[in-house]
Design a protein that fits this description.
By secondary structure, the chain is of the alpha/beta class. The protein folds into 2 domains: 157 residues, Rossmann fold; 119 residues, Glucose-6-phosphate isomerase like protein, domain 1 (Rossmann fold). β4, α5 and β5 form a beta-alpha-beta unit. α2 packs across α6, α3 runs antiparallel to α9 and α7 packs parallel to α11.
């Protein structure tokens, strides 16, 4: 790999404050698929898109916009009643998502958020929001996922349905600009292992951060709700291992990490100088690229992965 030119993934990571702001500007034209206030909604996706669905589900329900569940598309509970099903699919070609949308046609209103308007999802969902400005060349998802969550978050903000403590998206974009230039935590860069932790809507961000580390660098990472850390995951913490928390850490967690010799990274939350958790995910994305490069991996072309999972009939 070149030591001078940034990877395509790094370039796409750096574009996120701009794509988040563009999502806000695009909201009036892209609102048709999005949930209405009071609707009972299921949000589905695969991989990264599923984790964004989880974060949005908690944001929406805790903000009072309506009951919201999130599922991997392959695990959607057939027969359960919803007022709307929303799918997140960067490529618009993922087999499990398309199969679900086609199976639901005519029984429940469906929507989708995608990056590519020239894909089958345009005909599979009733309405589609297209974030083509956030599409990516890299296999590893970064900006499409966060821009989708930015769009959904901006939609809640427009309806006064952001939960307490969640800042306006413009503040998150400014925090992301800081996250792009701030030095990465030295302990995390040198860590043998990183456990990502979240609470509420940031649990999905923790899962996504761990996935980025595995995809880009083949690194040993795990993710859990922060209060679950003491229920087993603490057993792997020690010297050269990091617990990275999205949002404010639960009381006593920092002491528990230090007690077993680990290092706590907790720079997001509502405290002075704290990053919005979505902006903190940008730092974790940067860490994944740095870890990949340190291991001699190409973050643009991770092992065993493709941009979309399209299954043959024999595997579907």
């Amino acid at each position: 790999m070149s030591g001078t030119s940034p990877s395509r993934t790094a370039v796409e990571i750096a574009s996120q404050p701009a794509t988040w702001r563009q999502a806000v500007q695009a909201l009036p034209a892209q609102a048709a698929p999005l949930p209405r206030a009071g609707e009972r909604v299921a949000v589905v996706g695969c991989g990264t898109s599923w984790f964004m669905a989880q974060s949005y589900a908690v944001l929406r329900e805790s903000g009072g916009h309506g009951e919201t569940d999130a599922f991997a598309a392959s695990e959607f509970p057939a027969g359960r009643r919803y007022d709307r099903v929303l799918a997140i699919t960067r490529s618009g070609t993922t087999t499990e998502v398309l199969d679900l949308l086609r199976g639901l046609r005519g029984t429940v209103p469906t929507g989708a958020v995608t990056a590519d308007p020239d894909t089958p999802v345009m005909g599979a969902a009733d309405h589609v929001a297209v974030l083509d400005f956030a599409d990516e060349e890299s296999v590893v998802q970064t900006r499409f996922a966060t821009t989708t969550l930015a769009l959904l978050r901006a939609h809640l903000e427009a309806h006064d349905a952001l939960p307490p403590g969640v800042v306006p998206l413009e503040q998150a974009a400014r925090d992301a600009e800081r996250a792009l230039t701030a030095p990465l935590p030295a302990a995390a860069r040198a860590a043998e292992q990183v456990t990502f932790l979240g609470t509420g809507w940031t649990c999905g961000l923790a899962l996504e951060a761990a996935l980025k580390m595995r995809e880009a660098a083949g690194a040993w990472t795990e993710a859990y709700p922060a209060m679950e850390y003491r229920h087993g995951p603490i057993s792997i913490t020690g010297p050269d291992r990091v617990a990275w928390v999205f949002g404010a850490p639960p009381p006593g967690l920092a002491d528990d990490v230090r007690r077993v010799g680990g290092t706590l990274v907790a720079d997001s939350g509502t405290g002075p100088g704290g990053l919005d958790p979505l902006a903190d995910l940008v730092r974790a994305q940067r860490l994944a690229v740095a870890a990949a490069e340190a291991r001699g991996c190409d973050p643009d072309r991770p092992a065993h992965l493709s941009r979309s999972v399209v299954l043959s009939d024999a595997h579907a």
